[in-house]
Amino acid sequence: MELREAISQISEIHAQLRRTETFRGTRALPMAITSGLALGVAAVHARASEALGVDGALALWIGYALASALICVLDLVRLGALSARKSRRQALFVVSQFTPALLVGVVVTAVLFPLPLAARALLPGLWALLFAVGIFSAAPSLARGLRWVAGFYLVAGGLLLVAGSGAQLPPAWSVGLTFVIGQAAAAWTLHEEERRTRVAE
User: Fold this and answer.
1) How far apart are CA 112 and CA 106, in angstroms?
2) Torsion, Cα of 67, 106, 179, 44 (10° steps)
3) Which conformational region is residue 115 in: left (phi greater than 0), alpha (psi within -120 to 50 degrees), or beta?
4) CB burial of residue 64 (10 Å; 0-12, 13-18, 19+)
5) What is the per-residue pLDDT across 95-123, written as a single tens digit (0 to 9) for each?
6) Does residue 14 carry a pLDDT above 50?
7) Burial environment of residue 199 by CB neighbours within 10 A (0 to 12, 13 to 18, 19 or more)
8) Residue 117 falls within a domain, yes or no?
9) CA-to-CA distance for 18 and 108, rounded, in angstroms?
10) Is residue 9 in a domain?
11) How far apart are CA 8 and CA 65, in angstroms?
């Protein structure tokens, strides 16, 4: 009985360490790439908004989300191939914290996309809000400065909801700058974290 309790306590200690230990596998470069990609998508959306229409514009941003997710996943796969078992466990733990917000985003998009414009126009704001929730959920395991990035997405998501509440899609640059600034801020935060880690070593 005592052995079982000791094993249970050790498992709880390990779980607590995973929750409080900072994951250093998230790099600045993928965030910077997704920021630049958002800039390009916003430019295309702004230039071709009439030709794209609402469905085309939303499809363009959904494509951006999928491409950004692929970039981050490939970077985590690279980390898994090059890192020790402990780092791989940390990466899976952080991904598990972020995943529920992503899944909700997929469901919300699938439900709202076929509906009238008044519903679809809310999608960019909801995406930003869910991104904020995902970062806040994983925040205990991430660089501390990313909490400010989550706060930015929270405020920007609220503003995008207001912009989309008049049965029209928010302007291309308001959507674009949300992700350009948010991802650039994440890249800068992670860059500074990487620099401090190198100096400490």
Assistant:
1) 10
2) 60
3) beta
4) buried
5) 788 889 989 999 999 999 898 888 889 99
6) no
7) exposed
8) yes
9) 30
10) no
11) 40
List of residues 6+ apart from 193 with CB closer than 8 A? 24, 143, 145
Number of domains in the chain: 1
Per-residue confidence band for 12, with pLDDT thresholds at 50, 70 and 90: low
21 assigned to some structural domain: no
pTM of the model: 0.80
Does the residue 16 lie in any domain?
A: no
- At 63 the pLDDT is 94
Provide the token pair at 105. Answer: 């985003």
- Domain range for 161: 27-194
**Cβ neighbours for 47, distance < 8 A, ≥ 6 positions apart:** none
